[in-house]
Amino acid sequence: MNAMPSLAELVDVVIGVDTHKHTHTAAVVDAITGGLLAELTVTTDPGGYARLLEWARDHGQGRAWALEGAGGYGAGLARHLSVAGEQVVELDRPARSSRRNGAKSDSLDAARAAREALGRAHLAQVKTDGPRGELAALMAARRSAVEAATLAQRQLHALVTTAPETLRAVFRGQTTAAMTTTATRLRQRQCWDPHTSTTASVLRTLARRVIALQREARSHEQAMATIVRAWRPDLLEQPGVGVIVAAQVLICWSHPGRIRSEAAFAMLAGTAPIPASSGLRTRHRLNRSGDRQLNRALHVIALSRTRYDQRTRDYVARRRTEGKTDREIRRCLKRYIARDLFRQLEHGQPPA
Questions:
Q1: Residue 206 and residue 270: Cα distance in Å, rounded?
Q2: Average pLDDT estimate for 256-271
Q3: Could you give the C-alpha distances from 272 to 54, 291, 292, 339, 342, in angstroms and in order?
Q4: Looking at residue 38, what DSSP letter applies?
Q5: Are 18 and 25 in contact (CB under 8 A)?
Q6: CA distance 189 to 15
Q7: Share of the chain above pLDDT 70, in %
């Protein structure tokens, strides 16, 4: 099999872009020598994007763009370049320790991005908008609502614990859901002292906040369900895959061809085994890299299948007889689930 051509064989220049909220800094790097040819900083608006594209056309026709933060501050530029038919690849922002001698400037980072793209064997495509973008927006809003509701519930619990006995007696022995409902129905009484009255008022406010946030989260989930069923309803047919899990998988996957292989998808999900050999012993350690939200989605699938899917339960029982721990078995399951999901996403082939 012939090796895939490198980026340097396909283009004349690579334009690295260091993205920020108000400005983007671009650096043109020669694809052969890696030398810096030009630099430009523009504003993050349509006028700035047009100026940047016009400037790039003066430095050669064969070009590729390497963007840092294409899913964040660089999203607007990535869309503008894609509409213009430009070749765009996405790069992760570097850790501080990876910067040479701690050097940091927008122009240095832009040139580094271009050279890093030239040195990579595999380049990441920018995620698409459309249904994926809709799901990403809804997922962010739902996650925020769920986290805020959870925080309000904790505050309600803590306040009940320290409340005057008159109020504590009302909530004693209740579940969280019952406590929330009870708190919304609290009414002021003339016999209460100021401390009790104020505490009751705050409890009612917290409970109403919890209910409003839970209602908001459900509305976002319903909207996601509509998109998932219209886009990839086949995912929902798999054991352990619900609307939230399917939406998270689709957000990370984006579109066919963006992720080069099922092994790369497993690495993105943080389920690819990491060798950790020492002396004569060979083993694998927990992979803490990758997209943690995608990893969490696979974890939910693994837990659900372990409890309800007979094939998975048989697999777990067999691996236990081989001496595997439950945590090791779960890691293996997540790796297999990542493989099956990728094949289904790319080719529409559900696991056998």
A1: 37
A2: 90
A3: 42, 12, 13, 10, 13
A4: E
A5: yes
A6: 69
A7: 90
Question: Looking at the predicted structure, is the pLDDT value of residue 29 above 60?
Answer: yes
pTM for the full model?
Answer: 0.82
Identify each DSSP E strand in the chain by its residue range: 13-19, 23-30, 36-43, 63-68, 88-91, 124-125, 274-275, 284-285
- pLDDT tens-place string over residues 57-81: 998 789 999 998 888 899 999 999 9
Tokens for 61?
Answer: 């026709």
Read off the amino acid at residue 46.
P
The first and second tokens of residue 277, run together, are 């050999």
- Residue 28's pLDDT is 96
Q: How far is CA 30 from CA 5, 8, 56, 117, 170, in A?
A: 17, 9, 13, 12, 73
Contact residues for 297 (Cβ-Cβ < 8 A; gap 6+)? 244, 245, 248, 249
In degrees and rounded to multiples of 5, residue 169 shows phi and psi of -65, -30
Mind listing the pLDDT tens digit for each residue in 125-143?
A: 788 888 999 999 999 999 9
Spatial CA neighbour of 182 closest among 208, 159, 162: 208
Backbone angles phi, psi at 42, to 5 degrees: -130, 165
* pLDDT for the residue numbered 68: 85
3-state helix, strand, coil split of the chain in percent (to 5) is 60, 10, 30
Dihedral pair phi/psi, residue 70, rounded to 5°: -65, -20
Cβ atoms of 210 and 152 closer than 8 Å:
yes
